[in-house]
Every structure is written in C-alpha cells, then in structure tokens.
Amino acid sequence: MILQTITFYLFAAITIAAGFMVIAARNPVHSVLYLILAFFTSAGLFVLIGAEFIAMILVIVYVGAVAVLFLFVVMMLDINFTELRQGFLQYMPIGGLIGIALLIELIMVVGVWQFGPEVAGHAVPQATTDGVTNTEALGAVIYTQYVYAFQAAGVILLIAMIGAIVLTHRTRPGVKKQRISSQVYRDPKTTIEVKKIPPGQGI
Amino acid sequence: MDNPFVQDYVWPGLWMLGGILAVMLPVVLAVAIIIYLDRKIWAAMQLRRGPNVVGPFGILQSFADGIKLVLKETVVPASANKGVFFIAPVLTFVLAMVAWAVIPWGYVNGVKLVISDINVGILYLFAISSLGVYGIIMSGWASNSRYPFLGGLRSAAQMVSYEVSIGFVLITVLLCVGSLNLSDVVEAQRNLWFFIPLFPMFIIFLISALAETNRPPFDLPEAEAELVAGYQVEYSSMTFAMFWLGEYANILLMCAMLSILFFGGWLPPFAFLDFIPGPIWLILKIAFFFFIFSWVKAAVPRYRYDQLMRLGWKVFLPISLGAVVVVSGFLVAFDLLPNKG
Questions:
Q1: What number is the average pLDDT over the span A177-195?
Q2: Which of A56, A142, B15, B178 is the Cys-Cys partner for B339 at CB 3.0 to 4.6 Å?
Q3: Which residues, including other chains, have CB under 8 Å from residue B173's CB and lie 6 or more apart?
Q4: Do A65 and B163 touch (CB under 8 A)?
Q5: A199 preceded by cis ω (within 30°)?
Q6: A78-129 tens-digit pLDDT
C-alpha cells in the first residue's frame, strides 16, 4: 500500500503544481504544455483508483487530440507580452475580489460537507464484480441503462460539430481544386489524339 | 531475506527492472540494426551498394554513426526556447520506449513474456502513439526557426488526421476479439489470422501506420526537398540521435502492432511449427513488416499535402467508419460476437 500512497502524492503534487503553472507561466505555449502535464498526471491518478479505461480515454481524447489543437492555435498566436501585462494592475482589485468570493464559497461548501451515514463506515465501493473488467462493466451500463443519455450526448456533439463547420466554412470564388474523380474518369479517346505521320512529310 | 519489505518490494522491483532491460536493450539494438537494413534495402532497390565500409558488409555503420553523434558538439540556437528544445527529443525517445511495455512476446516454458499484461493494452498503445506528436510539435516550436515550425505544423495535422482512422480500425479488431488485452487479441487469432477477414482494415492500418510514423510517402514533416529536414533542422549531436532512435523505435512498434493485430502475434502460421518459440515468430513478423516499410520508402513518391489530407479524411475515415458498422452488423447477424450475454 505504501507504494500506492507515495505514487498518489507524487502524481497529486505534480498535478497541482502543473495546474498552478498553467496560470503562472509567462509564455502561453508553456501554459499549454503544463496543462498537458496536468491531464497526464490526472490520468495517472485514475489508474491508481483502478479506472484504467477512463485514464486511457483521458489521455487519448484530451492529451492526444484536444490539447494538440490548443497547442496548434496558441503556437500561431502573435502575442505581445508587454501589452498583455498593461491592464494587470487595473483589473487586479476586481479579479482579486472575485477570487476571494470564490474562495469563501468553496470553504463554506467544503466546511459543511458530510458523507452520508451509509457511506461513512464503508471502504471504497467495488465498482465491478470479479471477472468483469471495467471496460465491460462500463459498456454494459452505458448501452442499456443510460442509452438515451448517451445517445443524447452524441447528438449534442454532432450538432456542435455541424454548427462549427457551418459557422466557419466559407466558399471563396476562384479557388483551384484537384478533382480526382474527373482525373480518374478521363477518357483516353477525348484527351489523346493519335496522329499518323507519313514519313518524310511531317504534320 | 524473510524481511517483508524485501519480499514485497525489492524482489518484484528487481524482477520488473530485469524485464524492462530485457525488452529495452534488444529494442535499441534492433533500431541500430534496422537503420542499417533500411539503408541496405533502399540501396539494393536503387542498384546502389549502401553502407559497406565499416565492418563486414558495413554492418557496424549504425554504431559508427552513433559514436560520431555522441562525440559531436550540441549546438543550441541562440533564440531557441531551451527547456522545450531539450525536452522534445527526450519525449520522443521515452514515448517510443514505454509503449513496448505491453507488447506480448508469447510463452517460453509456460511463462508469458510481457512486462505489463494490462487489460486495456490496445488503448495504452493508442494513447502512447497519440502522444508521439508532441515531440515533433515541441521541437518545431522551440527551435524558433521557419523550417522546423512548418514541419511541426504539418506533422500535427497529419498525425491527428490519421489517428482517427487508426482508432476505427482498432475498434473493428476489438469487435472480433471482445477484449482490450493484447494477449487476448493474439489468442483470438489461433484459428484464423485477422488479416484474412479484415483485409481492407489491415491495408488502412498499414497506410495509416506509415503516416503516423512520418515514413515516406508521408514524410512531409521532414520533407528534405522543401523543408530541409523539417523539425530536425536545428538539432545536432545526441538530441538528433534521440529523434532518430525514437523514430525508428516507433516504426518497429507499428510493425509489432501490425503483427499482433492482424498476423497472429507470436502464433506460428501452421500448428506443426509450434516447436519454434513465440518470440522468434513475433520478431520474424516485425522484420517482415519492416521490409514492407522500406520497400514503400524506395518505391513510392511523396504525397502532396492536400492529397495526404484528402486520403485521411475523405477516403480512410468514411471507409473505416463504415467498416465498424459492417463488421459489428455481420457479427451480430451471424451470432459470432465473442462475449455473449
């Protein structure tokens, strides 16, 4: 157990430090890289509590796809750091006030937090019965009990995707495109003409 | 010796360390050998002689190159972002190595040879290979130079596009297996290797693997004719060697994935060849696929960038998405699903 505890504190400390550096780093690209580190160590925490499927999906979706696009966009930004810092003092009172309000709310919520009486005495509940992997158990629940919620989530994502494409897509006039199908279906009869050249005369 | 600490931590730790070394050292050695073989195969197809000076038949060429790179000076561009600049090659190398942890090598004397037999092995491999893009993007950005930046941008778009179709191909294989464990994937192919029923998926995976490892004809991130060498331009000495090692270790990994997912991993092609141990079969299959990779490199010209994107999004994505529907429909209709109930 001690090894798990050490690993937990290691991952947790790195996650928090990386999360702090996301907002503290001066360079936005470094911020995104710290964000990726935070995602990755959270995946490690998921593995520690035995949710290996969610951990892998977290890495594949967030680190492997979403964060790549983040990095892609942030790398291309042309940011002037001195200009960015100019408004800092001006907005600090408001920002600080909001931060303190949030902190007080969090303390109030967490301070009165009580576990239900049926939870308090138990160990961590076992999610799956023996012989069934997490992945199978998750699939069995998602596609039966929660199938409508799952499908609804899928439809919402699809609509978001279509919306993003419709909003950003613009057709520019005069763009030259390669039409592969028309290239493939070109008929030799209409494109090539074989000329018989009599010797000594030319065309 | 009876100390519980020694029993619980020291021996398992040493056992694990030994396993890691037993996989990692052969992989690094294999990288040195396949770089030599790659150059030899390429040379043979172009009627050249290839490396033939260092050692018999030039077999020590990779080691000579390695020593040369170690002894050279590391040049860091003045305007580079130093930290990220050095993390990028290390990341590429480490990611190429950690993926080998879940590759099952078969049974020798009834002992299963695998460092970590986790039950989400395929997802682990997919996750690690999707992280590989960071080494390239980070090097492209940190070099603070035009060619590496263009190379990094190209590779980001390319690797993200082809991962999508790789993911769907993996799903079709998983539908036939009913488990995410790589050993189960191999065991499910005892009667029929998956490249026979899933032949189109095998081809898509092979081509996507070429794109994912930035091999020709999809080597746009380092296209030497237009981008000099893309993201590697500013790297020298050991940092360059680490990119090189990581790249070839990734190629070997993709060959291993092809063997495990479609060609029965450690299983022999015919049952009477069972006396040859599993690891040898897997190594032979990896070597076979590496030959195909080299062959493609010598035979096919580089794709244009828009053609590459078209192939990924307009050809492979619809086909592999349709294949998921067709394969699952077929399995349900003929009652062939592996996990019923």
A1: 83
A2: B178
A3: B122, B185, B194, B198, B201, B261, B262
A4: yes
A5: no
A6: 666 666 666 667 788 888 899 999 999 998 888 877 766 666 555 555 555 6
Query: How confident is the model at residue A199, as a pLDDT?
Result: 84
The pTM of this model reads 0.83
Chain B residues whose CB is inside 8 A of the A72 CB are 137, 153, 156-157
ipTM over 0.85: no
d(CA B159, CA B167): 12
Least CA distance to B129: which residue of chain A?
A: A64
Residues with Cβ within 8 Å of B193's Cβ and at least 6 positions away in sequence, in order, are B262, B263, B264, B267, B269
Please provide the distance, in angstroms rounded to a whole number, between the alpha carbons at the two ends of chain B: 48
Name the more confident of B247 and B5: B247
Q: pLDDT tens digits, residue range B249-301?
A: 999 999 999 999 998 888 888 877 777 788 888 899 999 999 999 999 888 88
- Taking an 8 Å cut-off on Cβ atoms, the answer to whether B84 and A63 are in contact is no
Pick the residue of A35, A58, A60, A178 with the most B CBs within 10 A to test the interface with B by mutation.
Answer: A60
Long-range contact set of residues B310-314: C-beta below 8 Å, sequence gap at least 24: B310/A180, B311/B207, B312/B158, B312/B161, B312/B162, B312/B164, B312/B165, B312/B208, B312/B211, B313/B161
Going by C-beta distance under 8 Å and a sequence separation of 6 or more, which residues neighbour residue B268? Answer: B274, B276, B281
Q: Do A71 and B137 touch (CB under 8 A)?
A: yes
